[in-house]
């Protein structure tokens, strides 16, 4: 990890901890698609730090969104620069559908500031509360034609804004000055349109495929991950997850086990490590450890739960 990213990650850690979040360790190894996870009551975040946001790859964005959907967290990037210069404070940027904030904007957001402005093709835009704009116009006694003439735009544009379309900042300010009403709509960072792409990397690892076949047989749902410390997320609901790491042997990359355990603890979910290697160990890095042969004996959810409980008992 380079020094600049390390500084930003530690500052993020401090911001979140100060606001009462449980935060994953800032120097966790084995993380690729994200750098920090945090939780405060039902509010959860998955954060990736980049100096230049234009370097965010599609595969990384898809991974962030998949994990956020499964966990009910808001996934976002904290960045510093884009092609046109530094990120503006108070503005939300997007790359591959993932919201991006500057560190200062994220700090303000954590203090309770709402975000209204986002960067789009051709400039900055403000999300419009269309119903409030319509109500304000009617209350003022203006028709769509009257308002469009005063603003200097088409009637269709006014109709689109009243339907909830965003307006450029300059048009919004003209509307606000004429109607003397705040009809901004706050940006919801927890409600982002998911992206899927033919470029999305599919995990063809035979170990992953074999594990998924067993999990499918037990009746659980799952999502494979390609750029995370865990290889598969197994779930019934977002409140009952297992973050599963697949290890060829118990000596392979112990830092992955630590990362799986730390992220699981923050999100209050179950860590699990599956290994091909026969071993008498019941845990690795504080995570219950199950051999692939033991797992093959599980044919339904109850079998899997009993196996996991036996390992957890041994750990405790």
Question: Could you walk me through the main structural features you see in this protein, from its secondary elements to its overall organization?
Answer:
The protein has 316 residues and is α/β, with parallel strands linked by helices. The chain has three domains: 3-112, Trna Endonuclease, Chain: A, domain 1 (3-Layer(aba) Sandwich); 125-179, lambda repressor-like DNA-binding domains (434 Repressor (Amino-terminal Domain), Orthogonal Bundle); 206-311, Trna Endonuclease, Chain: A, domain 1, CATH 3.40.1350.10. It is built from eleven helices and 16 strands. It has helices at 3-18, 58-71, 103-110, 130-140, 144-151, 155-162, 169-179, 206-218, 254-267, 292-295, 301-315; strands spanning 22-23, 36-40, 43-52, 74-82, 85-86, 91-95, 98-102, 117-120, 123-126, 167-168, 221-224, 232-237, 240-247, 270-275, 283-284, 287-291. Strands 1, 2, 3, 4, 5, 6, 7, 8, 9 and 10 form a ten-stranded mixed β-sheet that branches. A hairpin with a 2-residue loop joins β12 (232-237) and β13. The relative contact order is 0.11. The model has no long low-confidence stretch (mean pLDDT 91).
